Amino acid sequence: MYFNKISFRVRYAETDQMGVVYHGNYAQYLEMGRVEWLRDTGISYKRMEENGIMLPVVSLSLNYRKSAFYDELISVETRLKKTPSVKIEFDYKIYNEQQEILVEASTVLAFMDMRTKRPIRCPKYLLELIEKREKK
């Protein structure tokens, strides 16, 4: 399955007094990776919401291996786990500059109708974009 990779420097505000990234910030890093994966696939999260679809996280799992530090360049690799249905699942790896794995993670998000707050199936246009992306 196709994956996307983004890189950025750890900001001071994301660390504790020892310069280590606070563990709760990794969820935001995963979101950054996921939003960019969607964008790179041709899907605007903003446009999905404008069309009445939201993607709340229903499951989050993180396995911490090593710490990330202030001003370190880190990369988030985001991979679609399988073809979406009512849920969309992603696997992630976060690396430091030496290509050491810092975190392995996974998320499950549910497609929800914003008006009814009920689960819905993955929109057809999204499946088509994913299929097109997988063929590249």
TrEMBL record:
Record keyword Transmembrane helix present: no
Native source organism of the sequence: Zobellia uliginosa
Pfam families in the record: 4HBT_2
Top-level taxon of the source organism: Bacteria
DNA damage recorded as keyword: no
Keywords noted in UniProt: Hydrolase
InterPro entries from the UniProt entry: 4-hydroxybenzoyl-CoA_TE, HB-CoA_thioesterase_AS, HotDog_dom_sf, YbgC/YbaW
Protein name (Swiss-Prot/TrEMBL): Acyl-CoA thioester hydrolase
